[in-house]
Amino acid sequence: MKKHIFVITIIFATLTFMSCKEKEKAGDKNELQEITLGIMPSMDYIPFAIAQKAGIYDSLGLKVSFKMYLSPNDRDDDLRWGKIDGAITDLTRAITQQQKSAGQKIVMKNDGILYFIAGKETGIKKLKDLKQTNIGISENTVTDFSTDIVLQLSNILAVSVNKPNITKMPVRLEMLNNGQIDATFFPDPYATFAKSNGHKILTSTKALGINATETVFSEKALKEKRDEIKALITGYNLGVEYMKTHSRNEWSRIVAKDTELPESIIRRVPLPYYTPAELPKAKDIKASIAWLKTKQLIPEDYDEKNLIDSTFVSKP
After folding, report:
1. Is the pTM here over 0.90, yes or no?
2. For the chain, how long is the longest CA-to-CA vector?
3. Which of 149, 155, 153 is nearest to 284 (CA)?
4. What is the CA radius of gyration of the chain?
5. Distance CA 57, CA 228 (A)
């Protein structure tokens, strides 16, 4: 199993750190600056990756670098300290981080899905079986928020379960395999690997009506790299279109090329229904804010009006 976890990490590290060829633009005073996006090992950034690997960003004159993180805390710290320009994060983290760094804003939502998975030896067959269990979370993130929604819908009091804080996904997967936790949320490809090991998918953020991820940028990037952010989102939309107009076999080769992930695995991983870039919905923002206030992670007078920069994409 450790080999599988290693493969997952190598897959995404290889894919994300492969930079596209820099387009020659000698004498062009409007040459775009390089933009760096922090990501986690999940499927929500795939349209960005497709745009890079298919040469779409080359055609737009944009150089994009991806930096992979296994811990949301490390990702958020790097964004706050200017080591990356933007990041794919979740709505709860976007709100709490925006509270700390007022200039940081959401520019679009992503189409990531998390799957709630119960260990194969736990005897958990449905959500109502979760009483007196250990549910691994990454504290104050969408995994924490979604777990509370699961418990609420199952009429289970939060005090009836233990929620150990395990921020790194490879560690959570290993703990699920070893029976150290009973259930947890995973994005793909971790969810597919967990399922292949006999663990059971009980629900998902999509089934729960939860928007899992967003793309945010720092105040500095929003001021100094507006054209680059626009080009990045244009490339994302073209990447979505590319995936729709090309067979999965064709673009799976793009994703699998120069990685240790077989194309057969790429084809097995269920993908979100990717849509062109749009803003998060008001209901998702309000639900996340309400949850964060109950946990006293943001003040009661928190003002959401500065959370989103709506100048890059159209409203839903």
Report:
1. no
2. 66
3. 149
4. 19
5. 10
